[in-house]
Amino acid sequence: MLSDKERDQVRQTIEQQIAEAEKEMVVLKELTAAVAPDNSIGRISRMDAINNKSVNDAAYRNTRTRLKRLQNVLEKVDDKDYGLCMRCGKPIAFGRILILPEKRVCVSCSK
Ligand SMILES: [Zn+2]
Predict the structure, then answer these.
(1) Helix, coil or strand: residue 24
(2) Is residue 60 part of a domain?
(3) Would 16 be classed as within a structural domain?
(4) pLDDT confidence band for 36 (50 / 70 / 90)
(5) Cβ neighbours, 10 Å, residue 82
(6) Relative to the CA of 24, which of 13, 64, 67, 75 has its CA 20 to 30 Å away?
(7) What stretch of H or E contains 30?
């Protein structure tokens, strides 16, 4: 079971991670803006731009999913069972909670 102090710490960590994810989304959104059909950038760099775009699109989707999970879990930090593995019911290591607060399963169950 997490103490109140630990829950506060987790909540702060989640809020911080949400802020970071939101910042990342803004940057990625700019990077994923449509590749202009501009002949002046040349064929090779246009191909580069398209490649980068699909990498950035994937990063954007991943960040968006993570952001949703973080926002979701922020409401659950006060739940009695937060910090316990949803699969085996054992306490999740506090260090893991701070790094990946949106994961609700322990290390052994996530394998
Ligand atoms: Zn487990």
Answers:
(1) helix
(2) yes
(3) yes
(4) low
(5) 19
(6) 75
(7) helix 4-31
Q: Is residue 33 part of a domain?
A: yes
40 C-alpha vs ligand 1 centroid, how far in Å? 55
b (16+ CB within 10 A) / e for 99-108:
ebbbbbbbee
What local confidence, expressed as pLDDT, does residue 104 receive? 94
pTM of structure: 0.80
Q: Report how far ligand 1's centroid is from the alpha carbon of 100 (Å).
A: 14
Tell me how crowded residue 92 is: count the other CB atoms within 10 A of its CB.
23
- Give the Cα separation of 28 and 36 in Å (integer): 16
What SS3 state is found at 13?
A: helix
For residue 10, the Cα-to-chain-centroid distance in whole angstroms is 15
Q: What is the domain count for the chain?
A: 1
Place of tokens 């952001």: 67
* Domain with 38 in it: 4-78
